[in-house]
Amino acid sequence: MAKEKQVVINNPHLHDSGGKLIFGDNILCSQFLRDYADLEILRNICPEDIEDVSERYVLLYSSQRDSDTVKKVNISKYLSAEEDENPLELPLYIVSLVEHKTKVEYNVCMQIFRYMFCIWEDYEREMEKAHPGISARKDFRYPPILPIVYYEGTDRWTAPMDLADRILCKELLGEYLPRLTYQVVRLHDYSNEELLSKGDEISLAMLVNKIRCPEDVEIFTQLPKDKMDKILQDTPAYLLEVMAKLARALFYNMDIPEDKTEEAVAKIKERRMGKLFEGITFDYQAEMRKMREATEAAQRDIEAAQRRSEAAQRDIEAAQRKSEAAQREIEAANKKIELAEKMEAEAAKKNAEAEKKNAEAEKKNAEAQKVREEASQKVKISNHIARMAFGHHTASEIKNSLIQELGLTQEEAEEEYRRVVE
Length: 422
Description:
It is a single chain. By secondary structure, the protein is α/β, with parallel strands linked by helices. It folds into 2 domains: about 10-80 and about 90-300, no CATH class; about 380-420. Helix content is about 60%, strand content about 5%. The protein has 13 helices and 5 strands. The chain has a 5-stranded mixed β-sheet, sandwiched between helices. Residues about 1-15 have low confidence and may be disordered.
């Protein structure tokens, strides 16, 4: 099939519901852990060893993550006596935490860490409730948690695989750096033949989840039908219904008519998985037209957005120019204000200096006036004493005259008379 005829089914709800169906069932989950989890002790895990505890943790952690699953896997019967070092007789199980992703999420390490902390904290509360004080004992241990990311996207998984890689300046902490790694099971790393070789229902579910375009359907129909049918030979009826729901979600998202969808789904219940797409046809011209119309509409939206972006850029540039002009005006005004303030400061300084000089001049004038007045008074006193002396007045008369006529005190009269006579 030509590459340009591919019509990708890109509905996230399809993949989310598919992941929930797969990992919500203990048979499929046990098969997944046996086939794909990189842990030897899980190679023989059975459905009865698994307890689904997703509701206990997933909804507590985030209501938006209900496609993720948390399973409690009992491993007590798979441990040898030598390996069982459990003096407190704690329950022996592994918590399988499966994060379901349809695209690369770069903070998945922190998401997993939050999950693990929530699980361990809940385990501690549970053990404390049953055995008060047990978590403070030396031999107390938390259950192991196996974090797995089940990734259905076609792009390469590029998110950090270690929590340490999400920490700034991690080299500064050395051995004190917290580390947390996880396993990625990338669906598209497995060929259809590899999946089918597992020979269990999970392989069929993953084969259905790999279908994203009509070309994938064509490849699926070329797989050995007898092998697919044989896998469903002993599958429980309820699990056939799970597989049917998975296929129904796919058909609905491929716009297959309801009657054709139900005919196809019925083949799963009849254990004829190899003929799942028998009678299903695709109108490639219609698909190409829809794809072309969608592409053209997207292109128009991109062009319109580009025009809006260019207009916005022009507005930004015009506003920038206005801002720069206004800034220049502000800078010029600030310079004028600075110059005016400088001139005003200099004028104030000169005024202060002039006022100081005026005050000094007034002081000197006052002192000179006082000297003149004192000199005039002394001349007046001297003349008065001289006139009375020439008139043959006695010293007592002259002094009394100074007191009465010139307003001197007795001491001043004595002093002035002595000064003149001497």
